[in-house]
Write a structure and sequence with these properties.
Elements lengths: L7 H11 L5 H9 L9 H8 L3 H4 L9 E9 L7 E9 L5 E7 L7 H12 L3 E5 L12 H9 L3 H16 L4 E10 L1 H13 L5 E5 L15 E9 L1 H4 L2 H10 L4 E10 L12 H19 L1
Parallel strand pairs: 3-4, 3-5, 5-6, 6-7, 7-8
Antiparallel strand pairs: 1-2, 2-4
């Protein structure tokens, strides 16, 4: 089902489902109660929005250009003191510039692993940490992952992601130059890392993520590329203050808004995906990291 075939009310309900404790069952029931005139049912639209990861995969884990593996590492001050992530090495001997890829609010699902492989194909040593690994890891479905991530202490989770960035930067195959990108929760986490790491983080690309507190923005020393959807009221409301603070601190930053897009437009596992905007945003992301990380 194409994006323009889905009623805006179903999109709004899906956004609420993604960012709240609403269960899949409640989402489908509430969608089914939406009255439409003719054509497709709201229930069919809601079902079409649920992710289809196998169909969305772009880079196979057996692709000869990469070597993926799961790695474990220490994470003092985090949820359990240990973390696990999906490390993907590009072909070649290295060292490589490094990029951290941070998941949405449901753990390291197959889509984010695929994004990590895409980044490695571009020549970056890539780590996608699983914030749920200290409590058993991504549970195999997004509903359970969302509930599990919501149960974590947020500060401890962010500490686990900070330790993941430091692990990647210090990896023997890393050049020491580090970038980070993330989506939704991950975009906000990337902004948090930019504040916490200062000059230790060279470049960040948050996709539709919450902006940091205005008072914290001067601590950002990384180059910043912010990717916005045009129809994303909650995140876009933070943009003016974020941009003003970046400008006031003489930050190296650029912001892009993609027309006719919704929150999650880069995720090609659901009809929120906008292929043209996602391709442009990705090409800009890769070019930005190449320019800033070498």
């Amino acid at each position: 089902m194409k994006q323009d075939e889905i009623d805006p009310r179903v999109f709004e309900l899906y956004d609420e489902y993604c960012h709240s404790e609403m269960s899949r069952r409640e989402f489908l029931e509430r969608a089914g109660a939406i009255t439409l005139v003719g054509g497709l049912s709201a229930m069919a639209m809601a079902q079409a929005l649920l992710p289809r990861y196998a169909e969305a995969q772009q880079i196979s884990f057996t692709d000869p250009r990469i070597t993926p593996q799961y790695v474990d590492y220490d994470s003092p001050g985090g949820t359990s003191g240990r973390m696990r992530g999906y490390l993907v090495k590009p072909e070649g001997d290295g060292p490589f510039p490094a990029v951290l890829v941070i998941h949405e609010n449901r753990g390291l699902n197959p889509h984010i692993e695929d994004v990590a492989r895409r980044m490695a194909v571009e020549g970056f040593l890539t780590l996608a940490p699983d914030g749920l690994s200290p409590v058993g890891g991504y549970p195999g479905n997004d509903d359970a992952g969302k509930a599990l991530q919501a149960s974590l202490d947020r500060d401890e989770l962010l500490t686990d992601l900070l330790n993941s960035a430091r692990f990647l930067q210090a990896h023997p195959l890393s050049s020491g130059r580090l970038g980070a990108t993330g989506f939704c929760f991950g975009g906000g986490a990337v902004n948090h890392l930019a504040v916490q790491m200062g000059a230790d983080l060279q470049a960040v690309v948050p996709f539709y993520g919450a902006a940091p507190a205005t008072a914290d923005v001067p601590r950002i020393k990384a180059s910043v590329l912010v990717q916005y959807a045009s129809d994303d009221p909650r995140i876009n409301a933070m943009r003016p203050d974020f941009e003003a603070a970046l400008k006031a601190s003489n930050a190296d930053y650029v912001m892009h808004t993609y027309p006719d897009t919704r929150h999650g437009f880069h995720n090609n596992s659901t009809p929120r995906y906008n292929a043209e905007a996602a391709a442009l945003a990705w090409s800009r992301t890769v070019a930005f990291f190449r320019a800033r990380l070498g």
